[in-house]
């Protein structure tokens, strides 16, 4: 289940834009689109690299585990379930799946998972890796709060720049 997020983007007349229309706009405004995309990615990747002291593999592994968690939380909101009610395979991901998904060798993936477990960011349940939680917040989020704050600002800037390309579209 891929959750639907956000509101529809609309053109200046209030008509909902299709994905194909947005893609066509980006293609026709390629230089501007590419500038904003590369600017966003370069700034964000450099920031993530600094936050993880250059260990982008660890950042990727944590990001994927975070996505599994966020997907579960959004599904729980839709169904009214609680995280503890979910089976382990809905709350986490295996080392092998992480390795396959990222292309990072299994032993390297395992080593980085254990490092994050020792730091208190991850926990293991029945062979599945999941975010360690402090109430409703991931423990890792506390350690990455400055990065998270900068990311929110960066994404908002990126969103506004792309919205401006899509016919002065509104959300």
Concise summary:
This protein is mainly α and 171 residues long. 63% of the residues lie in helices and 7% in strands.
The succession of helices and strands, N to C, reads: HHHHHHEEEEHH
Shape: globular
Portion of residues in helices? 55-70%
Number of E strands = 4
Strand content: 5-15%
**Unreliable residue runs:** 1-5
Summarize the main sheet. Answer: 2 strands, antiparallel
Task: Please give the order of strands in the largest beta sheet.
Answer: 1-2
Mean pLDDT: 88
Structural category is mainly alpha
Number of helices in the DSSP assignment: 8
Q: In whole angstroms, how far apart are the ends?
A: 24 Å
Radius of gyration using CA atoms only: 19 Å
Explain what the structure shows.
This protein has eight helices and four strands, in the order H-H-H-H-H-H-E-E-E-E-H-H. It has helices at 19-28, 30-51, 56-79, 88-91, 95-102, 106-118, 139-143, 145-165; strands at 122-125, 128-131, 133-134, 137-138. The strands form two sheets. A two-stranded antiparallel sheet has the order 1-2. The chain has a two-stranded antiparallel ribbon with strand order 3-4. Helix 2 runs antiparallel to helix 8 (145-165) and helix 5 (95-102) crosses helix 6. The longest helix is centred in the middle third of the chain and has 24 residues, at 56-79. The two termini are 24 Å apart. Residues 1-5 have low confidence and may be disordered.
């Amino acid at each position: 289940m891929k959750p639907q997020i956000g509101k529809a983007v609309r053109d200046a007349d209030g008509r909902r834009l299709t994905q194909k229309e947005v893609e066509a706009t980006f293609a026709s405004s390629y230089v501007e689109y590419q500038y904003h995309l590369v600017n966003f990615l370069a700034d964000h990747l450099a920031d993530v690299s600094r936050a993880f002291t250059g260990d982008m593999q660890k950042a990727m592994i944590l990001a994927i585990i975070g996505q599994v968690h966020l997907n579960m939380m959004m599904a729980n909101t839709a169904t009214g379930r609680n995280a503890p009610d979910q089976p382990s395979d809905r709350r986490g991901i295996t080392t092998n799946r992480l390795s396959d998904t990222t292309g990072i060798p299994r032993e390297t993936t395992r080593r980085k998972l254990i490092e994050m477990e020792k730091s208190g960011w991850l926990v293991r349940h029945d062979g599945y890796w999941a975010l360690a939680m402090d109430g409703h917040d991931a423990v890792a989020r506390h350690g990455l709060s400055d990065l998270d704050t900068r990311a929110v600002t960066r994404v908002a800037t990126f969103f506004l720049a792309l919205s401006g390309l899509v016919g002065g579209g509104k959300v």
